């Protein structure tokens, strides 16, 4: 397969199977862990990796073929370890389109995880709320997403399809696993945090600017509950290659929807709220990993 192709947007860099394989082979040669579950930590949520025991950690700068993190709150480390009886790999820092990464680089780790033998992907993010019932500090279990860049033709699956990963036209109607969503809700009840947790629709936008009021009103009318600048491309690639997906948004701010509202969102505020809820989120994700079914690396 050629390494570049011409899209609507100009010449795109393509990652070929060999690129993912080389990174996966290098990681397999550096750690004895064979992860069943991968976790992508959102802005300020890198502490999710702290719960892993017997850690092997790698800086992205040392991993062949890996993109680099450039955003504050994304440490740029890949951490392998054991979490409540399951082997996990955790990304402390994800890649966003607005950093200048191509979509294949933005989603690169997901296919590497597939080649490592991962069966389940947990994606987390910081997001702004559009739904009136969601406030900063709340946790939204993602039931579905709107991939705005994807709808506009900016999709990580653009270009020649790699049949070894998945089909040309993958279905996206059950992206976020219903069983895991239900289990997470039960765990939230048992942990006494059910009043903080609800399900909702996440929308991915390109960023890096936050929303104008007109954009916020538009998304609210369309039924979007929370908005961020990540996650959907990773999930599209994960579903394409057959990974089971669970997603969670930590609501870090309200998206301003009124011209009378003088509030103004900023990244420092986003990181502050992430920090405040980090323990609750860690407890929820740990218990979910503990109780999810995996069977010799086969998620059921
Ligand atoms: O989606 P994550 O990586 O959690 O980060 C969110 O927070 C940042 C803005 O504060 C953006 O990168 C947005 O996508
Ligand atoms: N687009 C967007 N991304 C976010 N990430 C955290 N908060 C927000 C927000 O309000 N809008």
From TrEMBL:
Phosphate binds at residues 43, 74, 94-96, 126, 230. Catalyzes the phosphorolytic breakdown of the N-glycosidic bond in the beta-(deoxy)ribonucleoside molecules, with the formation of the corresponding free purine bases and pentose-1-phosphate. Preferentially acts on 6-oxopurine nucleosides including inosine and guanosine. The keyword Transferase applies. GO terms for biological process: purine ribonucleoside salvage. GO terms for molecular function: purine-nucleoside phosphorylase activity. Pathway: Purine metabolism; purine nucleoside salvage. Its EC number is 2.4.2.1. It catalyses: 2'-deoxyguanosine + phosphate = 2-deoxy-alpha-D-ribose 1-phosphate + guanine; guanosine + phosphate = alpha-D-ribose 1-phosphate + guanine; 2'-deoxyinosine + phosphate = 2-deoxy-alpha-D-ribose 1-phosphate + hypoxanthine; inosine + phosphate = alpha-D-ribose 1-phosphate + hypoxanthine. It comes from Myripristis murdjan (pinecone soldierfish). This is Purine nucleoside phosphorylase. Belongs to the PNP/MTAP phosphorylase family. Residues 37-289 form the Nucleoside phosphorylase domain.
């Amino acid at each position: 397969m050629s390494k570049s192709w011409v899209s609507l947007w100009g010449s795109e860099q393509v990652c070929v199977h060999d690129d993912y394989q080389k990174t996966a082979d290098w990681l397999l040669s550096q750690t004895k862990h064979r992860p069943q579950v991968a976790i992508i930590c959102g802005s300020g949520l890198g502490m999710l990796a702290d719960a892993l025991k017997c850690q092997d950690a790698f800086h992205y700068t040392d991993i062949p073929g890996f993109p680099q993190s450039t955003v504050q709150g994304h440490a740029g480390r890949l951490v392998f370890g054991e979490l409540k009886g399951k082997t996990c790999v955790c990304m402390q820092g994800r890649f966003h389109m607005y950093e200048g990464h191509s979509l294949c680089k933005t989603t690169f780790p997901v296919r590497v995880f597939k080649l490592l033998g991962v069966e389940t992907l947990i994606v987390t993010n910081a997001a702004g709320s559009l739904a009136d019932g969601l406030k900063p500090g709340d946790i939204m279990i993602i039931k579905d997403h709107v991939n705005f860049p994807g709808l506009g033709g900016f999709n990580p699956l653009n270009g020649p399809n790699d049949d070894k990963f998945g089909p040309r036209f993958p279905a996206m109607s059950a992206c976020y696993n219903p069983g895991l969503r239900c289990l997470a809700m039960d765990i939230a009840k048992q942990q006494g945090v059910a009043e903080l947790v609800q399900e909702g629709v996440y929308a991915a936008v390109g960023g890096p600017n936050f929303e104008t009021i007109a954009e916020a009103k538009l998304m609210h009318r369309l039924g979007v509950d929370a908005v961020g600048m990540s996650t959907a491309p990773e999930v599209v690639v994960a579903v394409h290659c057959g990974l089971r997906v669970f997603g969670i948004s930590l609501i870090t701010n309200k998206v301003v929807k009124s011209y009378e509202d003088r509030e103004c969102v900023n990244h420092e505020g986003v990181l502050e709220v992430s920090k405040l809820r980090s323990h609750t989120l860690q407890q929820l994700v740990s218990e979910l990993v503990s109780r999810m079914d995996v069977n010799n690396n086969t998620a059921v």
